[in-house]
Amino acid sequence: MLSSIYIGMTGLQGFSQGLRVIANNTANLNTPGFKSSTLQFADMFYSNSANGSKTMQVGYGLNTAGTMLNFEQGELRQTGNNLDLAVDGQGLFTVRDTGGALHYTRAGQFTFNSDGVMVSRVDGSKVMGQDPSGAPGEITIAGHQMIAGKATTTLNFAGNLSSTDTDHTVQNVKVVDTLGIEHTMTLVLTQSTTTPGTWSVELKDGATSVGTGTLVFSAGAPTPGTATVNMTYSRAGYPSLPLKLDFSKDVYSFGAGTDSQLVFTSQDGWGAGSLTGVSFDDTGTMVMSYSNGQTVKGVRLLLGRFDSLDAVSSNGNNQFDATNNLAWHIGTAGTNGFGAVRSGMVELSNVDLSQEFSDLVIMQRGYQASSQVISTANEMLQQLFQMSSK
């Protein structure tokens, strides 16, 4: 009967641990990236005793064999914050703490600290990336707050330059110089009175002529030799800027009265810009956006994944540690079995509340049954003592 009490106590201890695991899962129901766990139960060792030709095996109660993590993916929820990231598929973000140790997490709630380094909002761990050469390192926007301008090299035009028109002016022709300063110019086209289909081309910066050229049409299309007009924009004290006026695409000359529709469409230069936002694409590549409309790609997020649950353990702060490096792999999103990165989303906890409540009932009943065993064994002992005292 004493052994029955001890066996009942193992049940109380085991189901108490089970209740603790359920409580932890339930408490983290709304914790982003949280992975639930279950307690593994096992029976204790047995003793054998022989009774004639029969052997009796008697168990010694309940044993707990540790917890097992559930890495099933949780729901991905939109947040609107481009620095909230989630992995859709296999993979965990890699972070490095202040001591230099690497950890892994599915909770991609990141930000940039005052030094421009990407860190976890939970504990300030630095998020790790991989540069084009494959070398791991911090993800930083330091040195990327501004982007230099690019001078215009090509001006593009489109539309119909009426063959019956005598002259046409194209307004608001944008040119960016070598210092990133934008200039608004005017293009003046004048058809020759002696050679129909031949147009003189003059680009003007205010009243100053930038350069001139000739545009010739044959069968309504620019001739190959005149479809582009080259000139040089020169300003005192500034480097000369070669310009190419391109009429080779979507420019025609057909009879349409005296109304021409030739317009300026685009140019390939831009001014200097400041950083306005950072996001990540599906491959985990950092994309920096600037006020001049340009984007620049940076390093890629470094991800990790494991082959077996035996190779990972919980570390707290929504982080996990590698317990067997041979079973871990590092890489980038979309390669070698890694999932895609979703920007502006977080992965919610994968706790199944209905399952937890079902397990809670089982733990409660198990605890009550173990308690009843102890109570019954205690009553039997009391009766035995009463009998022996008579």
TrEMBL record:
Residue ranges of domain Flagellar basal-body/hook protein C-terminal in the record: 342-387
Intracellular or extracellular location(s): Bacterial flagellum basal body
Limits of the Flagellar hook protein FlgE/F/G-like D1 domain: 86-141
Any one GO BP annotation for this protein: bacterial-type flagellum-dependent swarming motility
Keyword Magnesium included in the entry's annotation: no
Keywords: Bacterial flagellum, Cell projection, Cilium, Flagellum
GO cellular component labels: bacterial-type flagellum basal body, rod; bacterial-type flagellum hook; cytosol
Domain of life of the organism encoding this protein: Bacteria
Residue span(s) of domain Flagellar basal body rod protein N-terminal: 5-35
Subunit structure: The basal body constitutes a major portion of the flagellar organelle and consists of five rings (E,L,P,S, and M) mounted on a central rod. The rod consists of about 26 subunits of FlgG in the distal portion, and FlgB, FlgC and FlgF are thought to build up the proximal portion of the rod with about 6 subunits each.
Membership in a protein family: Belongs to the flagella basal body rod proteins family.
Name of the protein: Flagellar basal-body rod protein FlgF
Annotated source species: Caenimonas koreensis DSM 17982
Gene that specifies this protein: flgF
